[in-house]
Structures are given as structure tokens and as C-alpha cells.
Amino acid sequence: MQTDDQWTLELWHRFGDIRKATFECPGCGHIQSIQDFINLNLDPSRAYKDCIGNFVDQLGCNFSVDSDGDLSDKTRLIVNREGKEIRVFNFI
How far is CA 70 from CA 40, 54, 64, 90, in A? Predict the structure, then answer.
């Protein structure tokens, strides 16, 4: 578990450019970036919560941390400034 600020700082240190941040879908293992979501005119904040397969039919995966459980070993738990816990995909 880490704070939202810690997670964001790690993202910047690892990738430098937020659009280059990549995440692994815990459901199917697909690697996706924030830029992939931007390219499809999708909400970029979903890149670390939803498999892009929710929006691209040929991938065949509809995994979402909002509805498919935590898969704790393949996700992270972030605590935002309001104290709410949010599950996100791991960085790759």
C-alpha cells in the first residue's frame, strides 16, 4: 500500500513522461500505456484500472479493478488524499 503522492512520484521517476507509463492487465497480461488510451480518445486514468480490451474488441478481455476483484499479487493498493483505497494495475 502506498499513498497517491508516492505512487505518482514513482510513476514520474520510472517513466519521466506520464504518457509512457505502462501497466499490465491482471486478467490477461496485456501491456498497455496511458498513451494507448489517449490514442483511442479514452479517459487516460482508466489505463491503470481497466484492460484496454474493454474498449478494443479483438483483445477479448474485460478486466476492471472496479468489478473483477483485487488480484492482490498483480495490483497495488493506493490511498488517496481523502483516505479512500483505490486498486490499480502494477507498473511494467
Answer: 26, 17, 9, 12
Grid cell locating 92: 511494467
pLDDT at residue 32, as a whole number:
97
DSSP 32-77: EEHHHHHHTT--GGGGGTB-GGGT-GGG----BTTTS---GGGEEE
Which residue from 63, 75, 56, 69 is spatially nearest to 28, judged by alpha carbons? 63
Cα 51 to Cα 39: distance, rounded to the nearest angstrom: 15
Three-state DSSP class for residue 27: coil
| pTM over 0.85, yes/no | yes
